[in-house]
Amino acid sequence: MLKVNENFSNLTKSYLFSNISQKVNEFKANNPDKKVISLGIGDVVLPLCAPVIKGLEEGVKDMSAIETFKGYGPEQGYAFLRDVLQGYYKEFSVELNTNEIFVSDGAKSDLGNILDIFSKDNVVLIPDPVYPAYVDTNVMDGRKIVFMDSNISNNFLALPDYSVKADIIYLCSPNNPTGAVYNREQLTKWVEYAKEMGAVILFDAAYEAFISDESIPHSIYEIPGAKDCAIEVCSLSKTAGFTGLRCGYTVIPMELKCGETSLNELWLRRQSTKFNGVPYIVQKAATGVFSKEGRAKTKEVIDSYKENAKVLGAVLKEMSIDYIGGENSPYIWLKCPNEMSSWDLFDMLLEKANIVGTPGVGFGKNGEGYFRLSCFALKENVIEAAERLKKLQF
Amino acid sequence: MLKVNENFSNLTKSYLFSNISQKVNEFKANNPDKKVISLGIGDVVLPLCAPVIKGLEEGVKDMSAIETFKGYGPEQGYAFLRDVLQGYYKEFSVELNTNEIFVSDGAKSDLGNILDIFSKDNVVLIPDPVYPAYVDTNVMDGRKIVFMDSNISNNFLALPDYSVKADIIYLCSPNNPTGAVYNREQLTKWVEYAKEMGAVILFDAAYEAFISDESIPHSIYEIPGAKDCAIEVCSLSKTAGFTGLRCGYTVIPMELKCGETSLNELWLRRQSTKFNGVPYIVQKAATGVFSKEGRAKTKEVIDSYKENAKVLGAVLKEMSIDYIGGENSPYIWLKCPNEMSSWDLFDMLLEKANIVGTPGVGFGKNGEGYFRLSCFALKENVIEAAERLKKLQF
């Protein structure tokens, strides 16, 4: 008799985004004349830039002719893209072998699937508030989860607590949802803790391209010693608007071992068995991101999103609403004024300003009383949202 | 202290394709003047057809403009593609709801990832010879595997043995590697067995488009009662040359339950948590496959591969070499002449005829003494290969 994975019954139903969309749809139905501005979901709005489109067009052309058609590619990605990624890491003074880089269809897949190579018996350390998938993917496997508090007392940057034992540690910097970023010293503390515990850090660097501050590490491997205790997962979703095109990469250094076992080898085996690689045309597009023109164009787009953050930050400051983020991140994490709850602020912003954001409590208990604004929006909408915010009375 | 998934240490190293490529590379280095013809790996060689390229081009254009740009799509696939797939199933008189269809990046991913929703305690029934990923993905999870013999006595179409208890059953028809196909009566027996066991059938229909015989089911759901005991996994890789473009689909009917638990709901949760959908442009391309012109063009391509099978089949017959497959499948499965071993025939074909095939033993113990020829090759190469075969003396 078939038995299902009983761990699924321990998942909490995720009502966050369905609740949001239900409330928004209801509001729109009742107020068809109102223009609702979404600063909610973290999805990009600007189109792919010219060098990426050129990569796609070249790829499509190759796929249409017998001489240049591509069938199965290498599961870990084409050499032409891995070479380019190797070069990108050199900019952060990180030296990688190309066989330490695995091209994937995005950070979400890799962050979920990487758990295949780990025992269910590991204890997992997860910050709160957090991207919900870190939690759910481990609940599905039945792993014990320990939460660490990110809150105002640590500027939403939890640091190691040696009284807590953990085997797998999630870090996301620049952080989703808070926009907080770890500096070199703080990351060094995490690397030291991981080594002391014999743990692995899963470092989610999906927002690294938003870092402006030159002293902030883009990669965990900028920290000495990180190569034998950290896996880095990155994505072009936010770097280059690939949320609908799907391409990311995961780095597992050869030094990273569990006893005698190479994690790189386990992941290669996992991917070769359960994955057939990213579409050739998408890898061609990804290569375009890292061309000279691609770098310039993607920076322009990121700068425009960060300009949005400045506009929103300025109005919040004017209104004396505390917030963090927005400087090295596309997210602004604000303290709800007057001790309002996250959902109360959500309702008020929707009704009074016709603005959609994300209630902080949706990311964990420490998110209660906070609120996330996403800067992935058109400039004119952000300016209009700022004007509307200014008129609010708390 | 981090612990890895110890089940990985129970994987047998897969030497099959690395051994093949090593032998081929060695031969080529020693015989630079010889033209080696590959009938080995099951990868397509003909380019994407015009309606698919058109879908890609439209998609790329959409992604380049702000008004039509697409970010995150639905994890289970765009409605426009699921509608088309629903229509395709109607041709086999199979009625599906669109929320029973999940668009994926290919059968390999889905066949591996679907195991997330099942307990590790299930007993898995797998035919031998077999696509090696069925075995490896279950070894990774530590599930008990029971093999069923496919051999000449059952025309390489194993049928249920009620003395064997199983919870998860793999069926692949048309079969890789043997090219054998189950008829309606045989599939009905499997559905009856699955119901008796309370088991689920994972039906791999990746080669369904190669079926010529009108009496052979394309979908397991053509069998009455299959909807509450079978998951179907399909792919455009072989249907439309998508091996490098990556698109497939998995069907989980609403009727399919394990106790009170809907498997469709579990899979939706798994995919929403660990997957971000297939690139929009690839889904546009996939839609092109099912247009009227797309159907005609992909049929032409499949017919040309099956023409190859006819050419090879004719010469094998002339040489009095027994084989099956090739009629409803791109694979020919031949009995090695004179009791040769699979690898001895491989060596002989490479050295004497400069033809690369796949030794049957690479697919399991019942494959020993057999050999797979893939018909995914250019017609002129197949004709030349046939000429060379004819001259061989066994």
Automatic annotation (TrEMBL), chains A, B:
Domain (Aminotransferase class I/classII large) ranges: 34-388
N6-(pyridoxal phosphate)lysine sites (modified residues): 238
Enzyme Commission number(s) of this protein: 2.6.1.83
Residues engaged in binding pyridoxal 5'-phosphate: 72, 107-108, 131, 176, 207, 235-237, 246, 276
GO MF annotations, alphabetized: L,L-diaminopimelate aminotransferase activity; pyridoxal phosphate binding
Origin superkingdom: Bacteria
Role this protein plays: Involved in the synthesis of meso-diaminopimelate (m-DAP or DL-DAP), required for both lysine and peptidoglycan biosynthesis. Catalyzes the direct conversion of tetrahydrodipicolinate to LL-diaminopimelate.
Alphabetically ordered keywords of this record: Aminotransferase, Pyridoxal phosphate, Transferase
Protein name: LL-diaminopimelate aminotransferase
Gene responsible for this protein: dapL
Family as reported in the entry's similarity comment: Belongs to the class-I pyridoxal-phosphate-dependent aminotransferase family. LL-diaminopimelate aminotransferase subfamily.
Residue stretches spanning the membrane: none
InterPro entries: Aminotransferase_I/II_large, DapL/ALD1, PyrdxlP-dep_Trfase, PyrdxlP-dep_Trfase_major, PyrdxlP-dep_Trfase_small
The organism of origin for this protein: Clostridium vincentii
Known partners and oligomeric status: Homodimer.
